[in-house]
Write a structure and sequence with these properties.
heterodimer; A: alpha+beta; hypothetical protein PF0899 fold; B: 221 residues; alpha/beta; Rossmann fold
Chain lengths: 122, 221
Amino acid sequence: MHELSLVASIVDAVTESVSAYPGARVKEVRLRVGALAAVIEESLQFCYGIATEDTPLQGSALIVTVVPVGGHCPSCARDVEIASLQSFRCPLCCGPVENVRQGRELEIESIEIEDAEETVQS
Amino acid sequence: MTTRIVELRQGILKKNDELARELRGRFTAAGVLVLNLVSSPGTGKTAFLERTLRELRENGARVAALVGDLETDNDARRLAASGAPVRQINTHGICHLEAEMVSRHLEGWELADLDYLFIENVGNLVCPSSYDLGERIRVALLSVTEGEDKPLKYPTLFNSADAAVITKIDIAAAVDFDRALALQSIDAIRPGIRVFETSSRTGAGMAEWLDYLRQQRAAQK
């Protein structure tokens, strides 16, 4: 439901980054989104098309990589991945998993840009 | 034509996260325990908070509340009847509170004069989970009328909670509430979390809840 706010933040952050490359066009924006981030990719893509109009991101592709959920199992003393969002227990010992950090990511990993000057010369 | 990859590795909610960290620092320095209350619309957050504010004040604690809603200041007026300072945050369509809204509505309040600050989020079990408000404790509330499997349906929110409160326990029998199943659902999503079974009408469970608040405040110092 808050995908439009997220996309607006992405547009702001990317626009700020490409301001260092005058006239450059953004071709691709790569995101890392945690499986526990409560974000629906379809909705993100839909909002992206609208929010990028008349910005340096217009026409660019949004590529989303989903990060699985992971945390720490104190009894096994190791970090583990959680396969199902219906049970936050260690896949090895069934003990409770603490500190679920991995899987909440909402991160812009990188952007691919096309330089303006080079385009003019070719 | 040259293309290049620029690494950003930047959180989409970076601005909110930075501001929330700053708020958390201010709250800790002032010695105020801050709680963020999250649930569906209709769970009884406001009724639960009304009772909490009233009982804390009767015990001599200094309390205040910020309450988020899309429109209206009805909840703020209800809460203000407790005598505690209360401010309404109207989000005008935004489905969650953000750190900036909290920061803006704290202006003029002396945080060091408070023991507890409650932030009642907009009724929503999805979006508020992504927005850190600088709170120490996130409380997920669930009423006996909502279905025992609600935590399984909204794992993102329930997994991010530090405590869970079951509300309207006084009508549990009338709605065939399956207590064991509800506790099992909460434990599946957030193993080991403290669960309080409460009624804002009868006061059931409030003593345990208030004890918990006092312990958490003492632990923060």
